[in-house]
Design a protein that fits this description.
The radius of gyration is 28 Å and the shape is globular. Helix 1 packs antiparallel against helix 2 and helix 6 packs across helix 7. The longest helix has 20 residues. It folds into three domains: about 140 residues, Roll (Nuclear Transport Factor 2, Chain: A), CATH 3.10.450.350; about 140 residues, Nuclear Transport Factor 2, Chain: A; about 120 residues, Glucose Permease (Domain IIA) (Distorted Sandwich). The protein has nine helices and 21 strands. The protein binds zinc ion.
Length: about 450
């Protein structure tokens, strides 16, 4: 067996878009296979009976495989708990062939762990003899096994992802998502921006029209076609005139985390908002005045209007000091944290399963769900932050900075990040090329 690495996989016919469902259009598949035969001689032959019986067995999803391997091709979509052994039996393929596949060094491990939903492609001679198989191992690696005169030969064909680094900027007029979209940035990267600053900025309530951002991130493509955004590398966000910056740093152990330009972690003891902004209203309007929902008592907290059932997360690590019903708060959870801080989450529709008094919770853990229990005129979360009994504005309370990077890493940190950070100030004009950043 040999493994050829570095080969570029290119086949014009194999693509998800061309995979036809045999179950619903076996005839079309046959027609297409016949048509395809003119273009590439060694292609699919497939009987209707075979197609239908396999479809009935729920095994076949697509039949078309204009491949270099000669013979009939069958594509199988792996279901939960499927094993290669079962699949070989259902396809009536030789179990002796399976045994010789498994006997190949390295191949057994590559073949034995199937992922539900993945596609395996088998090539056979119509009489049960396996001629080859194909499996996508990862986004960029495809395994092909072919029968040769002296047994099976396996190859791994690599088709690496291309990484481009892009810098873009936007100004918020209606929402972060819309500003991102206008700048050609995906929702995925917009969410990443909010996640990076979750300890500094309340993206649910405090993003305003006129807030600005500059972001440098990876765009991943394959064969020249855009796939998705990759890592967020650096970002600057100006929230109500105050500027926040973050940069991604990969430490020598390979862990990627975000830091301020000075090398301080962005993580802090408390999240600014106990709700994920995407779950609240993904197209929220920062110009809209927040509705006054509950003015029964002097208001000492922050109200987050959100649909009933929206998950509520613990703002910081702590312990449940109360979980139950309390007057106007309705279903309420109180968490006690270090340094005399207590956070309170009221009007919930229900608590997280298994949440009990005395229990420890970690930051971001779901503790309950938005509702309108107690004195509430609509579904919302009432959130309070108290320190030694005094009510504080959770959006303004100063949070201690987390520990900085160890001094030994600072030189490496600055070497990796200074260019990215400088790029934020140059803005979108400084859009980096493919080799602008050596991302580890
Ligand atoms: Zn309230």
């Amino acid at each position: 067996m040999r493994f050829d690495r570095g080969l570029k996989w290119r086949h014009p016919h194999v693509s998800g878009a061309l995979a036809l469902k045999v179950g619903c259009c076996a005839l079309l598949a046959l027609l297409w296979a016949g048509f395809e035969r003119d273009a590439a001689p060694a292609v699919t032959e497939f009987s209707v009976a075979q197609a239908l019986s396999l479809a009935d067995a729920g095994l076949v999803d697509a039949s078309l495989a204009p491949m270099d391997i000669a013979g009939n091709a069958i594509e199988v979509i792996v279901r939960r708990n499927d094993t290669l052994d079962q699949i070989f039996r259902k396809l009536q393929l030789s179990l002796a062939d399976l045994a010789s596949l498994r006997a190949l060094p390295d191949l057994r491990a590559t073949l034995d762990r199937l992922r539900p939903g993945e596609a395996l492609k088998f090539f056979h001679d119509g009489a049960g003899q396996l001629l080859g198989l194909e499996r996508q191992l990862s986004e960029s690696e495809r395994l092909t096994v072919e029968r040769a005169s002296d047994g099976f030969q396996a190859h791994i064909i690599e088709n690496p992802l291309e990484r481009d680094v892009r810098t873009a900027e936007g100004t918020i007029t209606s929402s972060l998502f819309e500003a991102a979209q206008a700048a050609g940035i995906s929702d995925q990267t917009a969410i990443a921006i909010a996640d990076v600053f979750a300890w500094d900025i309340d993206f649910v309530l405090n993003v305003r029209s006129g807030d600005r951002f500059v972001v440098t991130y990876e765009k991943l493509s394959q064969d020249g076609e855009y796939l998705r955004d990759g890592a967020l590398l650096a970002v600057k966000f100006v929230n109500q005139g105050r500027e926040y910056r973050a940069v991604r740093y990969v430490d020598p152990e390979g862990h990627a985390r975000y830091f301020t330009p000075e090398g301080r972690s962005l993580r802090k003891a408390f999240l600014r908002a106990p709700l994920e902004f995407t779950r609240v209203s993904s197209r929220f309007n920062p110009n809209r005045k927040h509705p006054v929902l509950n003015r029964i008592r002097a208001h000492r907290g922050v109200d987050y209007a959100a649909p009933t059932g929206t998950p509520v997360r613990a703002a910081g690590d702590g312990r449940v000091q109360f979980r139950g019903i309390k007057g106007g708060y309705g279903n309420v959870v109180e968490l006690s944290h270090a340094n005399g801080v207590v956070t309170v989450y009221g009007h919930m529709s229900r608590f997280a399963k298994r949440l009990r008094s005395g229990q420890r919770v970690t930051q971001g853990e779901v503790i309950g769900y938005v509702g309108q229990s107690g004195l509430a005129t609509g579904p919302h979360l009432h959130y309070e932050y108290r320190q030694n009994g005094a009510y504080k504005d959770p959006q303004k309370v100063k949070l201690p900075n987390a520990d900085p990077l160890p001094a030994a890493l600072l030189a490496d940190f600055h070497a990796q990040t200074s260019r990215l950070l400088a790029g934020l100030d140059q803005g979108a004009q400084a859009a980096g090329g493919p080799a602008a950043v050596a991302a580890r």
